[in-house]
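> call design_seq(struct)
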């Protein structure tokens, strides 16, 4: 597959050769996350999600959209594989702030092997750093990002991706350290875009990191996190398209917000 336009979108078209190093991987993660938002507009609009790489490429690159984990990490994996990186797919269970968990294995995340060490390289989750996380049993290894401190801890054969909040490590998701075929996510993709209990069906989520924090849009609010401060603006039927365009460069109708 030709990724020329994808590389132009990410401003990495001047890097034709890869040495498959962690700094290179981190640069790709950063550029992807800064340019391509996590969003579930199609789910909100009842548009079926395709995980065919050609369809995701068209949506993200040609139509200037984002997507959720199956789409974004699926596209990123295809690109990394094409460039010679060694990647695996993991089926993760998300831990919600209220202590509940998603259906087991409902989040698709990636790990990349570099010099016999694996690194979480997830561009399809709402709150992760713009760089990889080394999978390690050493609890002192972490990554500092504008939005916090993160780590990926291996306990037994389970990976725990965590964020430090109020001096406590909080698990964001966990996954068995086992490569999963794309077919393993079919049931979960159907659930997350159709079931009334799915958070993606219930609520609009559009988010991406910035160099100074993060911008996030829901049905009710546009939240701007900047250098540790948080600002909110009400989302209405009159302003949501301007907000989508200004903060995410997306020009798309959200049917529920038109009501």
């Amino acid at each position: 597959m030709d990724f020329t336009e994808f590389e132009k979108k990410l401003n990495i078209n001047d890097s034709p050769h890869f040495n498959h190093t962690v700094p290179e991987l981190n640069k790709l993660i950063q550029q992807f996350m800064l340019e391509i938002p996590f969003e579930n507009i199609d789910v909100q609009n009842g548009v079926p999600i395709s995980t065919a790489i050609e369809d995701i490429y068209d949506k993200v690159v040609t139509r200037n959209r984002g997507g959720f984990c199956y789409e974004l990490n699926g596209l990123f994996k295809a690109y990394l594989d094409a460039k010679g990186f060694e990647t695996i797919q993991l089926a993760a269970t998300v831990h919600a702030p209220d202590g509940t968990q998603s259906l087991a294995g409902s989040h698709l995340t990636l790990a990349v092997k570099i010099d016999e060490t694996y690194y979480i390289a997830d561009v399809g989750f709402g709150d992760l750093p713009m760089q990889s996380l080394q999978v390690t049993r050493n609890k002192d290894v972490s990554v500092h990002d504008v939005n916090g401190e993160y780590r990926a801890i291996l306990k037994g054969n389970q990976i725990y991706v965590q964020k430090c909040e109020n001096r406590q490590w909080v698990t964001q998701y966990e996954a068995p350290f086992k490569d999963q075929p794309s077919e393993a996510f079919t049931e979960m993709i159907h659930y997350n875009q159709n079931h009334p209990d799915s958070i993606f069906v219930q609520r609009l989520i559009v988010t991406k990191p910035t160099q100074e924090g993060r911008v996030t849009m829901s049905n009710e609010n546009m939240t701007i996190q900047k250098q540790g401060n948080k600002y909110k603006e009400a989302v209405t039927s009159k302003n949501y398209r301007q907000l989508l365009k200004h903060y995410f460069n997306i020009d798309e109708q959200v049917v529920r917000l038109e009501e």
